[in-house]
Design brief:
- This is Glucose-resistance amylase regulator.
- With 290 residues, the protein is an alpha/beta fold.
- The chain has 3 domains: 43 residues, 434 Repressor (Amino-terminal Domain) (Orthogonal Bundle); 100 residues, Response regulator (Rossmann fold), CATH 3.40.50.2300; 121 residues, 3-Layer(aba) Sandwich (Rossmann fold), CATH 3.40.50.
- The protein contains 13 helices and 8 strands.
- β3, α6 and β4 form a beta-alpha-beta unit.
- The longest helix is centred in the last third of the chain and has 16 residues.
- The radius of gyration is 24 Å and the shape is elongated.
Length: 290
């Protein structure tokens, strides 16, 4: 039975209108406690909610907010994969997904309110948007909303995010355990999440009783693109003179940075690049630009 037939059947059995049943199952606040009880009891008795995790609401439309680059695999593979995973998960539940691009900071609040106030927006997912004003608006609207990989200081909304500091710690520790003592960290620190990643890397150095020298062990870029990473690594390697140690591994902040770093190492030649870790360092960081 598809979503529309389920709603029609619940409406028939409870004597409530289809719109009321839809609002209850969408988790909207403008429904009475009695209506919610009738709808959920009927749905449970008819097995409609079986196999669905506790508390899951039936939704027909979800709006996804993310930085504009997240909708193009060429500009942000990490968020692109996240969004594709969400779309695949919602497809089997017959949920329509719509998208809206916002800036990470200083977002367009009017555009956000316009999209959230649309009757078709029954719930929202906010990906990689750190603007506190957007978080406040989302919480005040009282529609189901989850933050994904956002810096959330208010804690008014459900939120999920990787443990970026632990990822950095694990990645560097893994390379140390493989025998690498001079790791070159190729990172973009544009977002707070990547600063946490770097904090974890520094933590691993300290635990292994190794000094972390920004000049020797860190290259930062303004973005996550491969071309910039390639140029940055080429410049770094060309600046190494005499008997200064060469890096034996590159720990990159994303897939495209890893590819660009590898190309930069190849262009510098084996005598400048030392031993380069290719596929290994790409596996250490989640693909893309968190």
């Amino acid at each position: 039975m598809n979503g529309k037939l389920k709603i029609q059947e619940i409406a028939r059995q409870t004597g409530l209108s289809i719109s009321t049943v839809s609002r209850v199952l969408a988790g909207k606040a403008n429904t009475s406690a009695e209506a919610r009880r009738k709808v959920l009891d009927c749905a449970q008795q008819n097995g409609i909610l079986q196999g669905i995790s506790s508390g899951r609401l039936m939704l027909n439309n979800v709006m996804v907010f993310a930085p504009q680059r997240a909708f193009d695999v060429r500009t942000d593979i990490f968020y692109y994969k996240v969004i594709q995973g969400i779309a695949a998960a919602l497809m089997e539940h017959e949920v329509r997904i719509r998208y809206c691009g916002l800036e990470e900071q200083h977002s367009d609040g009017a555009l956000f309110l316009e999209k959230m106030s649309d009757p078709h927006t029954e719930a929202a997912l906010i990906i990689g948007i750190d603007d506190e004003h957007i978080h406040t608006l989302a919480a005040d609207l009282h529609k189901p909303c989850v933050l994904i990989n956002c810096s959330d200081r208010q804690m008014r909304l459900d939120s999920v995010s990787p443990d970026h500091q632990l990822i950095g710690d694990y990645s560097a520790s893994y390379l140390f355990q493989q025998g690498h003592s001079h790791i070159l960290n190729l990172q973009c620190l544009r977002r707070h999440t990547m600063e946490l990643r770097l904090a974890g890397i520094r933590q691993a150095y300290a635990r292994h009783h190794l000094p972390f020298d920004d000049g020797r062990h860190l290259i930062t870029t303004s973005g996550f693109g491969g071309e910039e990473a390639e140029q940055a690594l080429t410049t770094y390697l060309n600046g190494i003179h005499g008997h200064a140690p060469l890096p034996t591994a590159i720990l990159a902040g994303g897939d495209y940075m890893a590819v660009g770093g590898g190309q930069g190492a190849q262009q510098a030649g084996p005598e400048r690049a030392g031993r380069r870790v290719g596929d290994e360092h790409r596996r250490l960081q989640p693909g893309g630009n968190p």
